[in-house]
Amino acid sequence: MIREIIPTFKNTKPEGHTITAINALTNAKSIVQVSKKERTLKRFKREFNLPQNAIDGLRNAITACDRPVKQLQNEADQLANRLEQRRFPESPENLKKVRDEVKRKLKSGKRDEISDFDKEAFGGKVQEAQQYELRNEVDKIMKKASFNWKPLEITTKEGAGAYSLARLAPNYAEIARCLEEFPEDFQPETVLDYGSGSAAGFWAVNQRWPMAKEVTMVDISDAMTKFAMDSLRKNQTSPDPTGKPFVHDNINFRRHLLPSLNTTYDVVLAHRVLSEIGSSETRLQLIESLWKRTNRFIILIESAQSSAFGGILEARDFLLTQGTTVDYRKLLIDLEEKVMLSPKVVRIVEDYNLSDYEKFVMLKEAIPHGETLPTMLPTASVLAPCPHDLGCPLGVHSACTFATRFQPIRADGRRSEKESDGTEVSKFTFMILEKASRAINTHTDRILKNRKLGGHVTCDVCTSFRGIQRLTLSKKHGDLYSAVRGRRDGDVLPVRLKTISTDGLFDVDS
Question: Membrane-spanning regions, if any (predicted)?
């Protein structure tokens, strides 16, 4: 087998973006002044910045709070630091193992402090006191080690304002980056944003698909929903003659999903929702519920931590597995009622040497044309970032992470100091699954790491069938070198790796 590199496009330069940043929400618009060198640098830094009407809406909602904007900004900075260090919830089994290990080490460092006199004089009170002290020490150690996970709770307007100042811009940038993975000709009519929070999902969807007819936003926090509603209201200085209060004609706000599964959506978005659920079982129940309400696509986004990526992989593998597990009883009953049951189908179903996936593939070919194969859940395939529906080659201790650059929004007039040009970078991981079988011969090889070293570039690429491969190109490769060099980590590889047959004794990758 020999691999042949075939270019798939002509223009390789990333698109440039004009950037307008707002320093202070309470003041008039002010454009960040940057040097000529910084302006040149920005052409090569793709940014996803909030639209101006989103900044105006946030300003209006912030000024309606009872606290001074500078105090809210200070609270937002503290919240941003806590969220950045926040861990994905550990499973109860892992927590118990950690607690037992900590307790064992504490006990091993202490001698037996309960004497015979203590036992006779005080009974079990001394032992109870020591056990209480030991539990407190274990709790302190667990807390310092960031095992003190709790769901994020926002109960006041000021809390919602601080959260929006901290996360609206990075959340928008993460979602907008993920929406770029969709085909240009895809135009959804209905979108569900589960865990909508500060309405970052709405702004990203509205920018990418302005013709979407309906956007439903679900969040269990009343304070967060009311704040989002305030930020989405139209400009009151020029009332709309139609009398519709929001910037979109059809926005629905809900605390919970509708019980009926008849209401479905073309796209379902769940941004940093899995990290708010402590139980793996509950997370999968939510994923199943959202998948049943999905017409075509579901988007899952979490932080860049390996544990958060593990949570996304858990959801991915659940949908892929359940989507290829056939309901054999229902299949046999349906085919028998229609007088279509063949001996071949029965043999496949009763062959216990075959895996569920093998039976799924064979039964799809064995059942009569036009019949649907009943599975536990609707069949799923990965749109992005995975170029395959197989197991992840990175394993459980690594994460497939992505980065997105944005202009932060501050209410105190200060400029972010994280980057020289005032921008910031948010790292995250995501998964987009489609309610369909994987298309054949799709080109989705993904760049995991793009190393630009002088006159050559080395890419670690996640491929469809060969796991992670390393591709090296130098300047002598001309356009191919320029094409790959201009790509970011997480981009689709801009060349096609084609497999052609050979009579040789060895496989050669080139």
Answer: none
Q: How confident is the model at residue 414 (pLDDT cuts 50, 70, 90)?
A: confident
Q: In the numeric block, which tokens belong to residue 94? A: 């892992």
pLDDT in tens, 293-329: 999 999 999 999 988 999 999 999 999 999 999 999 9
The tokens describing 114, both together, are 């309960």
Q: Alpha helices, DSSP H only, in 293-422? A: 306-322, 328-337, 343-350, 356-366
Taking the C-alpha atoms of residue 215 and residue 251, their distance in angstroms, rounded to an integer, is 5
Whole-prediction pTM value?
0.81
Phi, psi values for residue 409, rounded to 5°: -110, 125
7 three-state secondary structure: strand
Rounded average pLDDT over 453-465: 88
Find residue 278's DSSP bridge partners. none
Question: Rounded mean pLDDT of 457-469?
Answer: 88
Instruction: Provide the Cα torsion 314, 316, 320, 323; round to 10°.
Output: 90
Q: Is-contact 493 7, C-beta < 8 A?
A: no
**Distance (Å, whole) CA 424 – CA 403:** 10
Span of 8-17, 212-221, 471-480 with lowest mean pLDDT? 8-17
| Cα separation, 47 vs 173, whole angstroms | 8
Instruction: Compute the average pLDDT of residues 478-483.
Output: 87
Contacts of 8 (CB under 8 A, 6+ apart): 443, 494, 495, 496
Residue 498, beta-bridge partner list: 4
DSSP conformation class of 274: G
Provide the token pair at 90. 């550990």
What count of other Cβ atoms lies within 10 Å of the Cβ of residue 405?
21
Nearest alpha carbon to residue 216 among 203, 202, 197: 202
pLDDT for 123 equals 54
Distances (CA, A) of 365 to 57, 158, 320, 359, 389: 54, 59, 19, 10, 20
State how far the alpha carbon of 84 is from the alpha carbons of 94, 203, 496, in Å.
22, 23, 37
Domains and their CATH numbers in the chain: 2-15+440-500 (no CATH), 36-67+155-323+398-424 (3.40.50.150), 92-144 (no CATH), 328-366 (no CATH)
| Distance from C-alpha of 292 to C-alpha of 263, rounded to nearest angstrom | 10
